[in-house]
Specification:
The protein has two domains: about 100 residues, no CATH class; about 220 residues, Rhomboid-like (Rhomboid-like fold, Up-down Bundle). The protein is mainly α. It has 17 helices and two strands. A two-stranded antiparallel sheet has the order 1-2. About 65% of the residues lie in helices and about 0% in strands. Helix 2 runs antiparallel to helix 4, helix 10 runs antiparallel to helix 12 and helix 13 packs across helix 14.
């Protein structure tokens, strides 16, 4: 489960330090001249707890800045590259000595990395699934896996259970079939009045390849994402992809059946990959691994398209539209959720933009099914 975080905590802490140095900004212009900044950096009482990297950045600013000023916002941005779990304690104490002593203690604590398998796993997840160094450090410090992630394990268990049941019921199973067309869960265009099919089709899979890929991505991508962002947010992205997949199929592939969790899986995958690509310079995911994920996803979509048009059977084909519509849901709802670690989504402009786009699409698709189909 993700951990609670006050998004303004860093800023408040840094402002509490900067406020005690207000005399350096003699003209109240919200900026420091570089000579004044050099004097500030020479103050051992204030900068005793600042790490070497930040000092190097500030020194570089002193050398390269033209004009010879550093804005207060730029100062805040440089300082906020460091995250400490003591920020709340420091903010609650107005005494500068207390702030500095707490920061020193945490600096020493942050350099001591636990060697347990759990802590190594948490660090690895933080570096691969979060894009900001501050968020990573905070997640590493606070994550306890209590309560544990539940959505992805439960949904995976249920989907595998349905697959085993249909294998036993139909007596055989192949790489891409057979499809249990008489199931009450499968999406069928001639049974659209049974609205639960627009969601519950995700429990049915057409063959081993279909099941294997979806379960692989759910576990390797969905489970770590749930550990970072929490069950509620990941379930929201997943179900948004599932619903977009069935509604998209009802419009763009009107006569096809639909099975599988590909809509939800691709919503998670597309949102995560888009977040990686937008923040690639900050992510610890090698180009080979990224290329491998894209290759596997492309192969799955290619196989679904081939299967859609190559089969010559009296049974309607299985649509691949859910892959594409799920990815679109991931690029809207999913990307906004995964970019905003522990932020209040209702305060994010992009969240309302993405939500409006997604809900507009849902309304259009529902009206299409009611009045046009």
């Amino acid at each position: 489960m993700a951990v609670a975080r006050n998004p303004d905590l860093d800023r408040i802490y840094l402002q509490s330090i900067a406020a005690q140095q207000a005399d350096y900004d003699l003209h109240s212009q919200g900026q420091l001249t570089l000579p004044t900044l050099r004097d500030l950096m020479a103050d051992p009482e204030l900068w005793g707890s600042v790490d070497n990297h930040m000092m190097e950045v500030l020194e570089m600013k002193c050398i390269t800045n033209i004009p010879q000023v550093l804005s207060y916002q730029e100062f805040i941005n440089i300082m906020s590259n460091r995250r400490s779990p003591s920020f709340r304690l420091a903010v609650e104490s107005p005494d500068k000595a207390t702030i500095l002593s707490v920061s020193n203690c945490i600096c020493q604590r942050d350099t001591q990395h636990s060697s347990s398998c759990f802590d190594k796993m948490v660090r690895k997840i933080a570096r691969k699934y979060l894009t900001d160094d501050i968020d990573r450090q905070y997640y590493e410090d606070q994550y306890t896996c209590c309560p544990p992630p539940l959505f992805v394990p439960i949904i995976t268990f249920v989907e595998v259970g349905f697959f085993i049941y249909h294998c036993l019921d139909m007596g055989r199973i192949t790489l891409n079939g057979p499809v249990p067309v008489n199931s009450v869960f499968i999406y069928r265009p001639d049974r659209r009045i049974e609205v639960w099919r627009f969601i519950l089709y995700m429990f049915i899979h057409a063959g081993w390849i279909h099941l294997f890929f979806n379960m692989l991505i759910q576990i390797l991508v969905g489970l770590p994402l749930e550990m970072v962002h929490g069950s509620c947010r990941i379930a929201t992205v997943y179900m948004a992809g599932v619903l977009a997949g069935s509604l998209g199929t009802s419009i763009f592939d009107m006569h096809a059946y639909l099975v599988g969790a590909s809509g939800g899986v691709y919503a998670l995958l597309a949102g995560h990959l888009a977040n990686i690509l937008l923040n690639y310079s900050h992510m610890q995911l090698g180009i080979v691994k990224l290329a491998a994920v894209l290759l596997i996803a492309s192969s799955d979509v290619g196989f679904a398209i081939w299967d859609r048009y190559s089969k010559k059977t009296p049974v309607p084909p299985i649509s691949y539209t859910a892959h594409l519509m799920g990815a679109l849901a991931g690029l809207t709802i999913g990307l906004v959720v995964l970019k905003n670690f522990e932020q209040k989504l209702h305060e994010q402009y992009m969240w309302w933009t993405a939500l409006t786009f997604y809900l507009g699409w849902l309304v259009f698709a529902i009206l299409w099914n009611i009045f046009y189909y």
